């Protein structure tokens, strides 16, 4: 019996979308969703549409540049490693060493 099985060779590789890796895709999606909600709130509040669009476009450019810079600087797991490094104590204090 000759069976042909497809082998998925990308099992352990990170998810990549347009150069963004892993959690950076989520950060970008969250930023864009928050901008959509901001536009809806401004529009419902009665702000001029042009002002809403300009503000959302400027903030969107900031979200894109911030996420792409973070992706380039920290990579796939580097941001989590940086947060873990900042959470570690700089020195160990021991008051009761010789008692």
Overview of the structural elements:
The chain is mainly alpha-helical. Helix content is 60%, strand content 4%. A hairpin with a 2-residue loop joins β1 and β2. α1 (23-45) packs antiparallel against α2.
Task: Pick out its properties.
single chain, 99 residues, mainly alpha
Quickly describe the structure.
The chain has 99 residues and is mainly α. 60% of the residues lie in helices and 4% in strands.
Indicate the overall shape. Answer: flat
Main sheet overview: 2 strands, antiparallel
What string gives the helices and strands in order? EEHHH
Number of strands: 2
Please report which band the strand proportion falls in: under 5%, 5-15%, 15-25%, 25-35%, 35-45% or over 45%: under 5%
The low-confidence runs, each spanning 5 or more residues with pLDDT under 50, are: none
Helix content: 55-70%
Q: Mean pLDDT, nearest integer?
A: 86
Overall radius of gyration: 23 Å
| Physical arrangement of strands within the biggest beta sheet | 1-2
What is the terminal separation in angstroms?
75 Å
Structural class: mainly alpha
- Number of H/I helices: 3
